[in-house]
Design goal:
The protein is mostly helical. It has helices at residues 14-27, 45-59, 81-86, and strands spanning 66-67, 70-71. It has one domain: ACP-like (Non-ribosomal Peptide Synthetase Peptidyl Carrier Protein, Chain A). Helix content is 40%, strand content 5%. Strands 1-2 form a two-stranded antiparallel ribbon.
Length: 87
């Protein structure tokens, strides 16, 4: 289990639950909370590509994750799952 200074924040709805499930599968780390940081979990460019491919596949074009002008998310700007959801 990942140790952080932050309190664990569990998914609060079906979108967060799907995203957390994807993050846990990609990172092979359990549990991951919605405020856990991509980089603190060991995230790097290859995992970012895998993660975004899984998110885009799961949510198709209706992903709750957006970047200026289109699809996907920018994990270097939005490193936590909560920040991605809020975008």
């Amino acid at each position: 289990m990942l140790q952080t200074d932050r309190a664990f924040l569990a998914p609060r709805d079906s979108v967060e639950l799907k995203l957390v499930s994807i993050w846990e599968d990609v990172f092979k780390t359990y549990p991951i909370g919605v405020e856990d940081n991509f980089f603190d979990l060991g995230g790097h460019s290859i995992l970012a590509v895998k993660l975004m491919a899984r998110i885009n596949k799961e949510f198709n074009e209706g992903a709750p994750v957006k970047r200026p002008g289109g699809k996907g998310a920018r994990l270097h700007i939005l490193p936590t799952l909560f920040a991605v959801i809020q975008r």
